[in-house]
Amino acid sequence: MNQKQGRQDKLIQEERNDTYQERQKWPEPTACSGCGAVFLEGRWAWWESADKAHIIVCPACQRIKDGIPAGYLEIKGAFFGTHRKELNNLIHNLEAQEKGEHPMERLMAITTEEDHALITTTGIHLARRIGEALKNAYQGDLDFTYGDGEKSIRMTWSRD
Fold first, then answer.
1. Is the domain covering 65-158 a CATH 2.60.120 domain?
2. In the structure, what pLDDT confidence band is assigned to residue 113 with cuts at 50, 70 and 90?
3. Per-residue pLDDT tens for 75-84?
4. Burial (CB count within 10 angstroms: exposed 0-12, middle 13-18, buried 19+), residue 71
5. What is the residue extent of each domain of the chain?
């Protein structure tokens, strides 16, 4: 008779669902009714929409509609209060570049107070790119953590 010595428990990983992750390949072409982005050749881009395109709401527009960001970037410190216009220009320029190449990466909102701002984005890459650009251009402290298996990011950049 063969007896097991000791107990071997297995850690069962809970399956996580990302509501905004595409689970299927869209018929090509597929166009977003909200922003006009087109899914073609396996990716979303700013192509001309075909006459007979399949129409859906893209993941970025759905996030915006639902108010559920993937990226959070908090900007803190006196530096923000004294350089607000300059920092906002940097943020909007980076968003235009990123959105031009990757339609699913967009700003959702910028909420500002005197020496504080919260930026929310539809994707993690835009938030990370803005945070790293702030760090590179203006130094300061940049901290970040990924959440939910790298499906979201929370960043804080601060400088006094």
1. no
2. confident
3. 999 999 999 9
4. buried
5. 30-57, 65-158
